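Input sequence (207 aa), recorded before submission:
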Amino acid sequence: MPQSLKADEVHSKTDPSVSKQWDDETPKKEQIQDFYKIVDSMKVGLLTTIRDGIGPVSRSMAVAKRAGPDFLFLANAHSKKFSDLDHNKTAQITFQNSTTQDWISVTGVATTTSNSDPRIKDLYSKGTSAWFGDLGDGVHNGTPTDPRMSLIEIKPRYIAYWKHTVGGLGFVKEVAQATIMGQVADTGVQRQLLEQDIEVMRKESAA
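Predicted structure, token format:
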């Protein structure tokens, strides 16, 4: 249900759209499982790197694998995101479900590996070659042995996400009522996973 805006929220410079949906009461184990469930339903996200002289630059990327809280991407070593990461290891991945409005923001540190990384062969699928092409020289052929085929691994340091608690019709009704009544829509819960939570996730995944 929509909630009324309070004077102390204005005076304290609080964003009511965040504070009224903020959830730090749900047990962390459940928050982590919800995060996995949501992110695993969204196979493509925006990978953002920091480019010298420009700032954040994003591009759509398919997740090759999620290993606990960490994300792996197959990518072309000739792309500019590799030079971005050479200069600044900070990266962000964002996902959004346009149907439920669920979203996830993952901020962390990126590492890149060359074609010698054995994980590339395990993560490769035939469809990956469509983004590399085949030069016909027996080397640059879009296969796991193509020297351009490289790996980007993002190890999160901070995760934020929002999970819907109403369906599509409920969302529309909630927003409409909040607009008419001058209230604040309450359509889901917003949560965060801090570095200590992410370390627990990583250890549990490796066990």
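Checked by second reader. Helices lie at 7-11, 16-19, 28-40, 80-87, 119-123, 168-181, 195-206.
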